Amino acid sequence: MAEFKTAIKEHGNVSIINLAGFLDAHTASSLESEFTKLIDSNRFRIVVDFKDLAYISSAGLGVFMAYIEKIRDNNGDIKLSGMSDKVYNIFDLLGFPLLYEIFKSEEEAVNKFKETKSSEK
Amino acid sequence: MKNKLKNKNLIIKSRTENLSAVRDFIASSARSAGILEADVENIMLAADEACSNIIKHAYKSDPDGEIKIKVDYTDDKFVVTIQDEGLSFEPDRVPEPDLQKYYRQRRVGGLGMYLMRSLMDEVEYISVPGKYNMVLLTKIISGTQSNAG
Q1: What is the rounded (10 degree) CA torsion for A24, A30, A34, A40?
Q2: Is the confidence at residue B106, as pLDDT, over 60?
Q3: What is the C-alpha to C-alpha distance for residues B25 and B48, in angstroms, rounded to an integer?
């Protein structure tokens, strides 16, 4: 069976979810539970790093759609980083770059949250 | 012999844990047909989407349904045929996804069908209600790797 793993780390008030392996209709539920845990802990500034993700299907893409509204309603965001060209192409085919900010690296995505924070009153 | 038809088969139970076996089967078949790696990935994803839809919609997540996957290929095209005996399906009733609308309505369905149509050259649905449903995913082979065999 293909493996999928998530690891969470905290960077100030930003939570980073690192994805590794294969995100499909079988493994999407484990990413859903990570989002649920973060939302339940009132952590709404989330970076999802795809550097070690080998594969994504629409079930995986659906997870981002399922939580984004609630997160933005709480002044947070999901920012995406580190996608391979192959994974980016799937996001692009479905028009995700219009709805999500996508960065080359995890650091850039985290820094974007810091800029947002410093501009807030 | 040039243009000789070759085929391979895989039968799985309708469980999402079997999607990785589907992907491995499609990838190894497409690679033995000599298909370019980028197309191998696209065919693999389209087959994953088709099987995911069958598990969720045709079998309503019943884990004991049967899904038959067959690949046929010649020098010109690679066809994946996926058959189930679950509930029938009317593809024309599934609209093209509008992501902005999905965002507002928190809907995620229909993305898989859209991906299949985007990644493959042809997608055909055949449904005989009460008997079987079939989806045919066709990729026209435009370029091949040198290790075809």
Answers
A1: 120
A2: no
A3: 11
d(CA B31, CA B37) in angstroms, rounded, equals: 8
**Mean pLDDT on A94-110:** 95
**pTM here?**
0.90
**Which residue on chain A is closest to B109 by alpha carbon?**
A62
Q: Which residues contact A83 (CB under 8 A, 6 or more apart)?
A: A50, A53, A91, A102
CA gap B3, B5 in Å, rounded: 6
Cβ contact B52:B18 at 8 Å:
no
Residues in A lying within 8 Å of B, measured between beta carbons: 1-2, 22, 24-26, 55, 57-59, 61-62, 65-66, 68-69, 86, 90, 93-96, 98-99
CA B112 to chain CA centroid, nearest Å: 10
Q: How many residues are there in chain B?
A: 149
What pLDDT was estimated at residue A121?
42
H or E, element range at B41: helix B37-53
Mean pLDDT estimate for chain B: 88
B52 neighbourhood in chain A, CB within 8 Å: 24-25, 57-59
pLDDT higher than threshold 90 for residue B109? no
Residues B24-43 pLDDT 10s? 999 999 999 999 999 999 99
H/E element holding B113?
helix B111-119
